[in-house]
Specification:
There is one protein chain. The protein is of the alpha+beta class. It has three domains: about 5-155, Beta-Lactamase (2-Layer Sandwich); about 170-225, no CATH class; about 240-350, Homeodomain-like (Arc Repressor Mutant, subunit A, Orthogonal Bundle). Helix content is about 55%, strand content about 10%.
């Protein structure tokens, strides 16, 4: 049996994890669900597609979905890597194992997308096929409108996103575990009326190391989230393209118009004219608006302090960041986060119960 301390719901704050999961689902266009080592959901689904919702409501089709989950999960555990496969309706799904010291503690089940370049995914395994293909075909036709609305992405995008989720999820889990172990050590030392000496409890660590753990975790989330956000340079003027690419790839820098003009090999005045024609506003206003947009994403998905978000997005100091944010949103960053979280809690409380039952994968592993 897995030790109680390694249960995923003991390691993570599941409310915060669900907010991150929701944001990742929005950014990646994938439906995402987190399960424990038994295959039982520990979160509700994020962005579940209407087609898959209706398929899982059908008592004849649901077992096929569960078999896909089971086989996909087993393969992911065996490989200790993301396993990308096709479900019984040829929709792409991903099983992402979460492990600590080679111990399996849960998984992130993602997917519900179609390939825009199916020729590149010809090696993907359809791990379950229907025993009654004619019935399957009829049911699929009845849901064709929903099926046509399933988002598409390239095979390369699917692989990159699955690897990103694998690294991000396991990093966050490991850092959360490290933090929990540190807290446990200090509580034990304090309970024994011992003088807490970090050098004897954890050689090589300092109080500063411990204080930086949360910052490192939020930095990792910020970096992964912003780098994989679904916005990108959409400017049509090829002369401005180097500047646009630089802005989107260097979100933490305080970028100047002069530097952008140099990258484009034109004068600052000519850059300003081209930029205003392309975007409809001046450079400083556009950049500020864009950074406020990214700030809102970080406020929604992380508990990162306002000062740290300011630093992550290249503002000179927090006061200027707050002033800029308020200019565009008419409230401060702190109030934006407060209202956003209250709204999310209200949505969760009024949401209908999920119709998803326990995912049966790994039953063969956990039988005792």
């Amino acid at each position: 049996m897995i030790q109680e301390s390694l249960r995923i719901n003991k390691i993570l704050d599941l409310n915060k994890w669900k907010r991150l999961q929701d944001s990742l689902a929005t950014v990646t266009k994938l439906a995402i669900l987190t399960v424990d080592y038994k295959g039982n959901p520990v979160t509700s689904h994020s962005s579940c597609q209407a087609f898959c919702q209706n398929v899982r409501k059908d008592p004849e089709l649901l077992p096929y979905c569960q078999k896909c989950d089971s086989r996909g999960g087993l393969e992911a555990v065996r490989l200790n890597a993301p396993y990308v496969y096709l479900c019984h309706f040829n929709i792409v799904d991903i099983a992402i194992p979460i492990t600590i010291d080679d111990k399996y503690i849960g998984a992130v089940m993602a997917g519900q997308v179609k390939l825009s370049d199916p020729e590149n995914g010809k090696d993907l395994e359809q791990i379950v096929t229907s025993m009654n293909k004619s019935s399957h075909h009829i049911k699929a036709n009845n849901l064709k409108e929903y099926y046509d609305n399933i988002p598409t992405m390239t095979y390369e995008e699917v692989i990159k996103i699955s690897n990103m989720l694998f690294l991000l999820c396991n990093y966050i889990i490991e850092e959360a575990l490290n933090k929990n172990l540190l807290v446990e050590m200090f509580e034990k030392a304090a309970g024994n009326d011992e003088g807490i000496n970090i050098s004897t409890i954890l050689p090589g660590y300092t109080i500063k190391n411990i204080e930086s753990i949360k910052k490192e975790m939020t930095n990792a989330i910020a970096e992964a989230f912003l780098k994989n956000s679904n916005d990108s340079n959409v400017w049509t003027n090829s002369v401005l393209k180097p500047a646009g690419d630089y802005i989107y790839n260097h979100k933490s820098e305080n970028i100047s118009l002069t530097h952008m003009a140099t990258l484009c090999h034109i004068s600052p005045s000519y850059f300003s004219r081209l930029f205003a024609k392309e975007t409809g506003e001046n450079f400083s206003s556009y950049l500020a608006r864009l950074k406020v947009k990214w700030a809102k994403q970080l406020l929604e998905v992380t508990d990162m302090p306002i000062a740290q978000i300011s630093d992550e997005l290249g503002f000179n100091e927090p006061g200027y960041f707050i002033k800029t944010f308020k200019k565009f949103e008419e409230i401060t960053p702190a109030l934006y986060r407060k209202y956003y979280k209250e709204n999310q809690i209200e949505k969760e409380e009024t949401a209908l119960p999920s119709f998803y039952g326990p995912h049966p994968f790994l039953r063969e592993i956990i039988k005792q």
